[in-house]
TrEMBL record:
The chain crosses the membrane at residues 222-242. This is DUF4142 domain-containing protein. It comes from the Bacteria. Residues 48-181 form the DUF4142 domain. The keyword Electron transport does not apply. Keywords: Membrane, Transmembrane, Transmembrane helix. It comes from Micromonospora lutea. The keyword Ligase does not apply.
Length: 245
């Protein structure tokens, strides 16, 4: 083989080895600790934030028709007035929830749950004083369950849109509990106890307080292992390249 061809072949091999080395080191630098790994917008929404969107949306999907029903068939004037106002306010809160979900690119429920639909059916089949009692009891219990969740998410969310929605929902739900209690039909002794999380509990309130959610990333140990492995590979290729030279 001619000296010129041999030199060109050697130069070509050296260039290829150098390219592999640079590519390997670049790949290692991409995953260095401290470099953010961007996640799609839908994956960046924390679990607690999504839970708030879902909970407020579901509340509106059954409490709006429940309030409308109370406005039409409530036996007492208080129940009729409270029902009409709750339906009106939930329409506004539902609009805010849909707007927030659209801004965040989040998917929210379109129909009430089977349990909530069962409550609506229960009200449809009731009349007079029995209807009034069912309406007040069902809505008061439901508001009592969502109220602490709203507060927990409001206290911990990192998302401005969710924080704004939580502020609005907190005001609406507090007002609704006051209105329901003004009917004189709330049976306080029968209300469920507060669902406070025990130490180490991973329930909804605990998750809301921690604002945990899907995390896109790799632990530092894994990152450094990949980085050092890449450097080792690069060093070995460099050694072979210059040894051949």
């Amino acid at each position: 083989m001619a000296p010129l061809d041999s030199a060109r072949r050697w130069q070509g091999n050296r260039s290829r080895h150098l390219a592999v080395l640079l590519t390997t080191i670049a790949a290692a630098l991409v995953v260095l600790p401290g470099v953010a790994l961007a996640a799609p917008a839908a994956q960046q929404l924390a679990a607690a934030d999504q839970a708030l969107l879902d909970g407020v949306r579901l509340a509106g999907l059954w409490e709006m028709p429940a309030g409308q029903m109370a406005a039409e068939k409530g036996q007492s004037r208080a129940v009729r007035e409270v029902g009409a106002e709750i339906a009106r306010q939930h329409e506004e809160l539902d609009r805010l929830t849909v707007e927030a979900a659209n801004k965040l690119g989040a998917t929210i429920p379109a129909n009430p749950t089977a349990e909530q639909q069962g409550w609506l059916d229960e009200m449809k089949n009731a009349n007079g004083a029995r209807f009034d009692q069912i309406f007040v009891t069902r809505l008061r219990v439901a508001h009592g369950k969502i109220f602490p969740v709203i507060g927990a998410v409001r206290a911990s969310t990192r998302n401005d849109v969710v924080r704004e929605l939580a502020n609005a929902a907190n005001t609406f739900v507090g007002d609704h509990m006051d209105m329901l209690e003004s009917t004189g039909l709330v049976r306080y002794a029968e209300l469920p106890p507060a669902a406070l999380p025990a130490p180490g509990n991973d329930g909804l309130l605990a998750a809301a307080s921690a604002n945990t959610g899907p995390q896109i990333g790799v632990s530092n140990t894994v990152i450094w292992a990949i980085f050092l492995g890449a450097l080792g590979t690069g060093g070995f290729l460099t050694y072979r390249m210059f040894r051949r030279s």
